Amino acid sequence: YDAVEEGAETVMTELKKSQPSKDKVLAELQSLEKTINSIPKS
Questions:
Q1: pLDDT band with cut points at 50, 70 and 90 for residue 28
Q2: Which of 3, 2, 17, 42 is nearest to 32 (CA)?
Q3: Could you tell me which residues come within 8 angstroms of residue 25 by beta carbon, excluding any fewer than 6 positions away?
Q4: Given CA atoms 32, 35, 41, 42 in this order, what sign does their dihedral have?
Q5: Is 1 helix (H, G, I), strand (E, B) or coil?
Q6: Residues 6+ apart with CB under 8 A from 11
Q7: What is the model's pLDDT at position 14?
Q8: Rounded to the nearest 5°, which phi and psi values hold at 17?
C-alpha cells in the first residue's frame, strides 16, 4: 500500500501550497483511485 500512501502524501503537499494546482490534485487522486482499485480485495 506504499503507492497509496505516497499518492495521498503528494495530494496533501499540493493542497497545503498557497496556490494548489487543481489539475495536479485531480490527476493524483485519479491515479490513486486506480491504484486502490487494483489492490486485490482480501
A1: confident
A2: 3
A3: 11, 14, 15
A4: negative
A5: coil
A6: 25, 28, 29, 32
A7: 77
A8: -65, 155
User: What's the structural domain count of the chain?
Assistant: 1
Query: Cell 502524501 sits at which residue?
Result: 9
What residues have CB less than 8 Å from 21, skipping those under 6 apart?
A: 14
Whole-angstrom distance, CA of residue 19 vs CA of residue 11: 13
Note down the domain range covering 33: 2-38
Measure the CA–CA gap between 42 and 20, rounded to whole angstroms: 35
To the question of pTM greater than 0.70 for the whole model, the response is no
CB 6 within 8 A of CB 31: no
